[in-house]
Design a protein that fits this description.
The complex is a heterodimer of chains A (357) and B (252). Chain A folds into two domains: 38-194, Cytochrome c-like domain (Cytochrome Bc1 Complex, Chain D, domain 2, Orthogonal Bundle); 198-341, Cytochrome Bc1 Complex, Chain D, domain 2 (Orthogonal Bundle), CATH 1.10.760.10. Chain A has a two-stranded antiparallel sheet. Chain A has 357 residues and is mainly alpha-helical. Chain A contains 14 helices and four strands. The termini of chain B are far apart. Chain B is mainly beta and 252 residues long. Chain B has helices spanning 131-135, 230-240, and strands spanning 2-8, 12-19, 24-37, 40-41, 52-53, 59-75, 81-91, 99-107, 109-118, 151-159, 162-170, 173-176, 179-181, 185-195, 200-206, 244-250. Chain B has one domain (2-250). The chains are: A mainly alpha (357), B mainly beta (252). Chains A and B meet through β1, β2 and α10 of A and β1, β2, β7, β8 and α1 of B. β1 (2-9) of chain A pairs antiparallel with β2 of chain B. Chain A: Its main location: periplasm.
Chain lengths: 357, 252
């Protein structure tokens, strides 16, 4: 006799959201499930979409309008999109973003891409926000960013000639509040998927990489050359990040504690989110403090610029020699490979541009 | 009325077969993996703080320890076996991964041996096959045979020039151009035990054994770039034999 043993290993989380049935007035917007790129559905876990904020056509459209609208800022001059510009893969070209009062922040703006696949849901360079919705609460009231108050935001939107109707279309209520604002923007931000770079097309068998790009990929994967893959993904992790925090040997001591400022654990000092390597062609300058203007500088950092500190990741194994000591040819090839992860279709996607123009 | 069903995380279904005529029950079994350094309890709190001395006399401290275990198998005296196919990735920085429970159709009763695979065997070690493992970049490079890491232990050891990193990573061993050895380890642990509803199995990993038996591991010689080092991979395989032991088996 053969027995079948069926086991469930790992965690099954199934969330069933039932819009309560008998209320005939219950409003339901038009579902617009996230489009999952082929490589992502093949290789990655399911995207993170909270049951309390399903993707809808009206929600995404509203979120997009809000994202590009300076109405969210204290003096009506700054939109999310000013620091997160489509042409910069939703980052900005400055070292430090500047808020409405002309005050410079202390971190480089982050690109917004594939954030529904940030499985640990730790957002910002230091992981300070634990959901996308919560992240979005923050810039609106941050004094060095949009410097507004939520009551003021809500009042401006409520008195606007279009927004009450749009909130009603998206959420079945024309009474606006901060939660609905962040939900709508989060829905839009979740649609910002990038999966159409030359390297993606190569993986899908649609294009052929140059020998230089291919050698660059080998440098990236080679344990005795770049050795970048432990933190920045590989061809089976098309996010090109492990979504976790590391100290990659930038500084001897830290003015910005990074993850340590959130966890309070000194072992986390100087650790920052390993960023995705997608769209580097559009996201300069680089690192949490935008210290490097070019990819050459970044590569030189890993090749000969590493400095030791207590919390440096042991994967920065060649720190005693200053780095992995790449040849000039390997450096150039590595750069060519990194650029093959950039996706012009992403920044030019008409669905991601300013709808208010 | 409208229903929205969202499935977060992957559901992995595993099936296994066993051949016996015992009464099979649907049982919840729990597993707990503990860690020590020669009987001194070792947890994430020790990372970056506790210094250990290995068999070679090298002083070391740990920053990261992750490993994967698969194919847990139970053996009865009459030779009948039940294999629970599937895997669990442990990460000492995440307590939740160290305990897991699952529901199995398996005969209750007396058993004599339990085994599991450290790593993934040839049948399962397929590049890119597991979304949850890809999502945490657990992959092993294709030019080293592909598939997944089996173990990743990162830390530092003391030298006359200060602390130096080591990356003790185990996976498929590259013998030469396009020739690889699977290099996973099946661990057999004997004990007479009774398996019932809610039985909990504890396993212990003695981390010191990775550096001890049979090869006294010299970190000054084998520290980084070990993934591509065939000798190091085979030494890891050899040393993995004594790393695990069986702890308490309890049924409430």
């Amino acid at each position: 006799m053969r027995l079948k043993v069926v086991i469930l290993f790992g965690l099954i989380i199934s969330i069933v959201a039932c819009n309560s049935s008998d209320d005939s007035n219950e409003y339901v917007a038009t579902p617009q499930p996230l489009e999952i790129p082929e490589l992502f559905s093949q290789f990655l876990s399911e995207p993170v979409i909270p049951a309390s904020n399903p993707q809808t056509e009206e929600g995404v459209a509203l979120g997009r309008k809000l994202f590009f609208d300076p109405v969210l800022s204290g003096n009506g001059t700054q939109a999310c999109a000013d620091c997160h510009r489509p042409q910069n893969a939703f980052s900005d070209p400055l070292q430090f973003s500047v808020g409405i009062d002309g005050i410079e922040g202390f971190r480089n703006s982050m690109p917004l891409q594939n954030l529904a696949w940030n499985f640990q849901e730790k957002f910002n360079w230091n992981g300070s926000a634990t959901t996308l919705e919560k992240q979005i609460f923050e810039p609106v009231t941050n004094p060095i960013e949009m410097n507004n108050t939520w009551p003021n935001v809500v009042a401006s939107l409520q008195n606007h000639n279009e927004y009450p109707t749009l909130f009603n279309d998206a959420f079945g209520s024309s009474t606006i509040d901060s939660v609905l604002v962040t939900k709508a923007i989060a829905q839009f931000v979740r649609t910002l998927t990038s999966a159409d770079s030359r390297f993606d097309r190569h993986l899908l068998g649609e294009t052929i990489l140059t020998p230089q790009e291919l050698n660059g990929f080998n440098v990236f994967m080679d344990e005795d050359r770049g050795d970048c893959f432990h933190c920045h993904g590989n061809s089976f992790n098309p996010l090109w990040t492990d979504n976790t925090f590391h100290n990659n040997g930038l500084d001897e001591s830290f003015t910005d504690l990074g993850l340590g400022s959130v966890t309070g654990d000194p072992r986390d000092n100087g650790k920052f989110k390993a960023p995705s390597l997608r769209n580097l062609a559009f996201t300069a300058p680089y690192m949490h403090d935008g210290r490097f203007e070019t990819l050459e500088e970044v590569i030189n950092h890993y090749s000969e610029g590493l400095v030791f500190s207590e919390t440096i990741d042991p994967l920065m194994k060649a720190v005693a020699q200053g780095g992995v000591q790449l040849s000039e040819e390997d450096k150039a090839d590595l750069k060519a490979f990194l650029l093959s992860l950039s996706d012009p279709e992403f920044i030019n996607n008409p669905d991601f541009q300013d709808p208010n123009e | 009325m409208k229903k929205t069903l969202i499935l977060l995380a992957v559901i992995t279904l595993f099936s296994a077969c066993s051949s016996d005529d015992d009464k099979v029950n649907n049982l919840d079994l729990s597993f707990k993996f503990n860690h020590n350094w020669d009987n001194q309890n070792l947890t994430f709190d020790d990372f970056g703080s506790t210094t250990y001395t290995n068999a070679n006399g090298d002083q070391l401290s740990l920053d990261r320890l992750r490993y994967i275990v698969s194919n847990i198998t139970f053996y009865q005296e009459n030779g009948q076996t039940t294999q629970l196919s599937g895997y669990q990735l442990f990460d000492l920085s995440d307590e939740e991964t160290l305990n897991f429970t699952f529901n199995a159709n398996i005969p209750e009763g007396e058993y004599t041996v339990i085994s599991f695979t450290l790593g993934l065997d040839e049948q399962y070690n397929i590049s890119g096959a597991y979304a949850d493992l890809n999502s945490v970049s657990w992959n092993w490079p294709e030019n080293l045979g592909g598939g997944y890491h089996f173990l990743q232990m990162d830390g530092t050891y003391e030298t006359t020039e200060g602390a130096q990193p080591f990356n003790y990573h185990m996976g498929t061993a590259r013998v030469g151009e396009n020739t690889y050895e699977a290099n996973y380890r099946t661990v057999y642990l004997s004990s007479d035990f009774t398996l019932n509803q809610n039985t909990t199995f504890e396993f212990n990993m003695n981390v010191a054994e990775w550096f001890k038996n049979p090869h006294t591991w010299d970190l000054n010689e084998f520290n980084t770039e070990l993934m591509m080092n065939y000798t190091a991979q085979k030494m890891m395989y050899d040393n993995s034999g004594t790393v695990f032991s069986l702890g308490d088996i309890t049924t409430p």
